[in-house]
Amino acid sequence: MVVYAYRCVEHGVTEVSRAIGTATAVVPCPACDRAAARIYTAPRLSLGSSVRRALIDSTERTRDEPAVVSAPPPRRGPAVVARPPALRRLPRP
Ligand SMILES: [Zn+2]
User: Fold this and answer.
1) 6 CB contacts (<8 Å, ≥6 apart)?
2) Total structural domains within the chain
3) 47 CA to centre of ligand 1 in angstroms
4) Is residue 18 one of the residues assigned to a domain?
5) What is the DSSP track for 61-93?
6) Residue 74 within a domain
7) How far is the CA of 66 from the centre of ligand 1 (A)?
8) N or C: which end of the chain has fewer CB within 10 A?
9) How far is the CA of 17 from the centre of ligand 1 (A)?
10) Is 84 part of a structural domain of the chain?
């Protein structure tokens, strides 16, 4: 099965799953039932696990659609450094 993409002028892209080579030039739009013309997209090749693909997709998306924030991240306090027990007995300045 292959996913073919079609675009309705009013409702955008619709994806239809069909066998290879059986794509038609138009399909009815599921929202308005008008003809949606086929569009050609890059093939979706598998790039490993779905987690890896999601990471790659989100990384690619930040190039064109960076996340918009409304405030800076919360400020963290000073770093707490754990002292080894052997150093606890040393005199402090
Ligand atoms: Zn439509």
Assistant:
1) 13, 14, 15, 16, 26, 27, 29, 36, 37, 38, 39
2) 1
3) 32
4) yes
5) HHHHSPPP-SSPPPPP-PPPPPPPGGGTTSPP-
6) no
7) 29
8) C
9) 18
10) no
Distance 31 CA to ligand 1 centre (A): 5
Condensed to tens digits (0 to 9), the pLDDT of residues 48-75 reads 788 888 888 888 888 878 888 888 888 8
Tokens representing residue 21 in the block: 């080579």
> What's the rounded Cα separation, in Å, for the pair 12 and 39?
11
Q: How far is the CA of 2 from the centre of ligand 1 (A)?
A: 22
- State pLDDT tens for residues 73-83: 888 888 777 88
* Residue in the block written with tokens 């919360």: 74
For residue 75, which amino acid is it?
Answer: R
**Is the entire prediction scored with pTM above 0.90?**
no
Longest dimension (CA), the chain: 83
- How far is the C-alpha of 88 from the C-alpha of 16, rounded, in Å? 68
